[in-house]
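3.2 Worked example (two chains)
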Amino acid sequence: EEREEVFLRGFLGKMIFSGEEALKKSNVLSGGEKVRCMLSRMMMKRANILILDEPTNHLDLESIQSLNNALINFKGTVLFSTHDHEFAQTVANRIIELTPKGAIDRYATFDEYLSDPKIKELREKMYS
């Protein structure tokens, strides 16, 4: 049981819950802490797919960086929506854009997707 607590505290430390913060009750957590707590729980359950809707919304810069690193190292699939350009660029390796005329699906970083002239042309057709 002591080894389990050491493991849990180590894991929570990576998600920026240090020392006594790891013992906080869930009803006193801030929005960002709740997000980090839920993400920690999902990762500890060894999920092989995460579905995240605007995961950086309530996080400070340090938390976003921790989340980025955790998701980059995550061995499973992460399906997410975001308005955070930097997050999309650092985490995504496949872009699926839903348009009025169907989906555009490409294996690319976000910046590659945005700058590709063929995709620009396709996007114009999909939105006209």
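3.2.1 Second chain
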Amino acid sequence: MSYNNILRNTLLTFLAALAIFLSPIGNDKASAADFTSSDFKSTAQKYLGVPYAYGGTTSRGFDCSGYVRAVFSDLGITTLPRTSASMYSVGTEVSKNDLIPGDLVFFNTSGSGISHVGVYLGGGKFIHSQTNIGVSVTDINDKWYWGNRYVGAKRVANVSFE
């Protein structure tokens, strides 16, 4: 093998190792983007009233995870997974008592694991796209439905308060 081939292979190996080392796989945060709580609230609430659409990802109609992804994309975070169950695998776990606006909140509505996601607004409320209602604000401790189905929460961004 010639000296040039050895040098080229060594350089390519180094660059590949560097690319792997710097890749975002395994980061706790979905993105390094930060935003304020008021930016989050105004962005999340601009979609109030958008109808529910199974598999929907646009302002013509959202499913729960499509809505969450749209809000965070508007705020600069474009790396959230597509489904509520896969969103539960990113971020840092947060206890219910420590929720802040912008935290993802997860529910088991199907009886078989994570099946719904919304975003905590503060004051015991979360915003989400729900079947037959669309994007709306709900009490996280609602005793008739959501309170019993709450599973947990994840923080995927650093939110500053104004």
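3.3 Remarks
The longest strand covers residues 116-122.
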